[in-house]
Amino acid sequence: MTLKQTADPERAAAPGPAPAPRRGRPSHRLQRYGPAYAMLLPFALLFIVFLIFPLGRSFYYSLTDFNGIKAPEFVGFQNFSELIVNDDRFHKAIWNTVKYVLGSVILTIALGLVLAIAFKTTSLRDRVLRTIFFLPSVSAGVGVILVWRWIFMVDSWGLGNTVVRFFGGENRAWLAEPGVSIPILTTMAVWGGAGYAMVLFVAGINAIPDELYEQASIDGASKARQFWHITLPLLRPVLVFVVITSTIGAFQIFEPVYLLWRRSASIVGGPLDSALTIVPYLYDMGFNRFQLGYASAIAWVLFLIIFLVTLVQLRVTKTFKEFDR
Amino acid sequence: MPAGGPLPLNGVNVTVISRTKRFGAAAAAAAIALTAAACSDGGGGQDATSMEEENVDSITVWHTGDATQLPMIEAVGKLFEEEHGVKVEVEAIDWADAHAKILTAIQSQDGPDIFTGGLSWGIEFGELGGLVDLRQYETENLESNVIDGLWQSIESPGGELYGVPLNMTTYSMYYRSDILEAEGIAVPATWEEMDAAITELQGAGYATPFAATWEPIGWLDWFNYMHQAGGTLYSEDCSEVTIDSPEVALGTEYWAKRFSEQNVPTDQPDLGAGFSAGEYVFATGGSWNYDTLTVGFPELAGKWSSAPLPAGPANAGSFIGGNVMGVMAQSEAPGTSAAFIDMVYSDAGVDAMLTTAAENNVLWLPPRTDKVADTHLDDANKQALTTIFETSVGPPNCTGWEPSSPDVQLALQSIVLEGVPVEEALANAKTAMEANQ
User: In CATH, which superfamily holds the domain spanning A87-324?
Assistant: First the structure.
């Protein structure tokens, strides 16, 4: 019996179609729902003032030429067309972001899944190792990024170069080589995110009834077949959650780019913009170049991209679910 | 002189606050930008008022930089308060966030009375309507004491003076004097001598004899060589972009050659540790390295010194920067604020800053070059800095340079990292600069 049913026992007991809800007198409705609305009001006000209003203003500014000081000048969809058609830096930022999202999400999930399967039990060893793998997720963000910058320093005593030299290589200027910018960001993301994904996957795996695996073993199914036909399908809700939240987070990458490569007040994006992703570009246009209308247009394009990608992910997941039936 | 007339000097209070960096995601950034923008107007065009008319108890300074620099401004603030009864409150804001914070203050009409920031920010914010023209006020100590090489960076094309230097930062060439002596190499004074010294040191087993420690593949480092070769970014009246001139090309060729032929690292190395390990023999870098080497690496005492950057075929000299300070347009005490800025340039103000710097063992290069000799550096380094300031030049004041500098930097990086021909890269840079003119 659900809460809804217990709230209206007459309707729950009556056979046939449910009667239409009665429209009580306004005073009755106010008496009945008033406290609920009153309790919702503070949140609704905050929601409107700090989310709905800025979003609305943001969309308005995306249609203007606005430098933050002088009055905005309406330009229609010119910012959007300029972004999509002519802006090479934006195209580069999109491409860099796509490479980063694909690399970081796929590798984070794959490694998280492997770790979850390897360390899913409640034994002391598994608990200790899970804690160790989870630690990067709770480490302070800025501090960790600065440690990564130290690892990739150009001097021969930097950790990265020490390892390279140990294997006979030569010093590299890691943060000044365009070809390794996205791999560095991806490495940092996987290192920081795999432990978090592992914890979610462990919870999901441990919720799968053991009987299914026992039955499959009796039927002669190998471990690999058990993984593909039991673990993965039943882990789908957790997998969808991890994929969607990781993807959204990856699209919004900002701090590592800003802290690893920003060397002066007006430059972001690393050598040859090799680390320029969408949000740092938004920041660059908005806060370095005062093009707040243009920056707002970038924000809306980013929103649309994330919205569409999430929609596709949900749709694909639903399709698989229907296919399984 | 506009309405209001000359202002007598009055006093001010200074307060220092550290701000943590806050980064948000796209929606948050857009929301901040939009909310901040909502209450904007032109600003900047107010009548000059005198300190007496304003009659304020305190003024506020936002200083872009680290907290170690605050005591120097506070020292002048104390003087100002003693003399004029106005307290000066100084707050520190981080370099990385300062530009956005000051812009937000300008557009929200809610911020400090005085800001300090990047050298080019005075013209940039002034032309946006965010700063007052200091020439509206009596600032007798300013005009005669700003060094020649900086006027082109702080005076707007229209002749307004939106900001003046608070302190100075310049490129010096640091070197391991003991290694040069052991190898019998004289301190190079020209490009040719530098090339010869590097070749000799590489022959002696130094794999990386030269390091550039201040944005090696950025426009700042390149600016030195471009200037030494006789190049400029714009014509004198700012009407023409001249970055594709033969002189600029010559300087750019030399700048790029250092990475490809002399093994100069393309990323910023740790100068102190590199000197200490004997890995680098020469390094170009900002003047903060005097403190880094002195305080951070006492074992190097007597083993290093500094000199001006080697001269090119046309000029000696190097880039000069530092903090500029100006009065915010929304300030309710612009006259008082201008008087405080004027005091920074007075003998008493500079002496107070240098005394405080010496007490804190911090190098503070005052905006008056005649006072460099009063810093706590040793004689050789004082002499080097004095020579450097005689030939230093700041960035151009031409409209469009600030937003163009990232594009110029990308073009320069394409030469070093992708092998793009110099002429082609400079042509790309010129296109970007002309688009911003």
Answer: MetI-like (1.10.3720.10)
The structural domains of chain A, with segments of one domain joined by +, span 28-53, 87-324
- The superfamily (CATH) of domain B26-168+322-367 is Periplasmic binding protein-like II (3.40.190.10)
pLDDT at B112: 96
For residues A94-106, one letter each, b for 16 or more C-beta atoms within 10 angstroms of the residue's C-beta and e for the rest, the string is bebbbbbbebbbe
The rounded distance, in Å, linking the Cα atoms of B423 and B26 is 38
Q: Is the Cβ pair A286, B37 closer than 8 Å? A: no
Q: Which residue of B has its CA nearest to A152?
A: B267
Query: Where residue B107 falls among pLDDT bands split at 50, 70, 90?
Result: confident
Question: Which amino acid, one-letter code, is at A155?
Answer: D
Nearest-CA distance A243 → chain B (Å): 18
Binding-face residues of A in 33-72 toward B, CB within 8 A:
50-51, 54-55, 57-58, 60-61, 66-72
For chain B, what is the total number of helices (H) and then of strands (E)?
18, 10
Domain ranges (residues) in chain B: 26-168+322-367, 170-319+397-436
Instruction: For residue A297, give every residue at least 6 positions away whose Cβ sits within 8 Å of its Cβ, in sequence order, or none.
Output: A62, A79, A80, A83
Whether the complex's predicted ipTM surpasses the cut of 0.85? no
Return d(Cα B63, Cα B78) in angstroms, integer: 16
Q: Which residue of A has its CA nearest to B38?
A: A68
A263-266: Cβ within 8 A, 24+ apart: A263/B215, A263/B218, A263/B268, A264/B215, A264/B218, A264/B220, A265/B95, A265/B96, A265/B98, A265/B99, A265/B118, A266/B99, A266/B402, A266/B405, A266/B406
Chain B residues touching A258 at Cβ < 8 A: 23, 96
B93, B62 contact by CB (below 8 A): yes
Q: What does pTM read for this prediction?
A: 0.80
DSSP B304: E
The answer to whether the CB atoms of A254 and B106 lie below 8 A apart is: no
Q: Give the nearest chain B residue to A256 (CA atoms).
A: B23
Please state, in angstroms and rounded to a whole number, the distance separating the CA atoms of residues A83 and A81.
5
Of B27, B99, B274, the CB nearest to A287: B99
Nearest Cα residue in chain B from A293 = B34
In tens, the pLDDT along A68-100 reads 777 899 999 999 999 999 999 999 999 999 999
CA atoms of B250 and A102, how far apart (whole Å): 43
Return the CATH architecture of domain B170-319+397-436: 3-Layer(aba) Sandwich (3.40)
Identify which of B34, B402, B414 has the shortest CB distance to residue A54.
B34
State the Cα–Cα distance between residues B162 and B122, nearest whole angstrom.
5
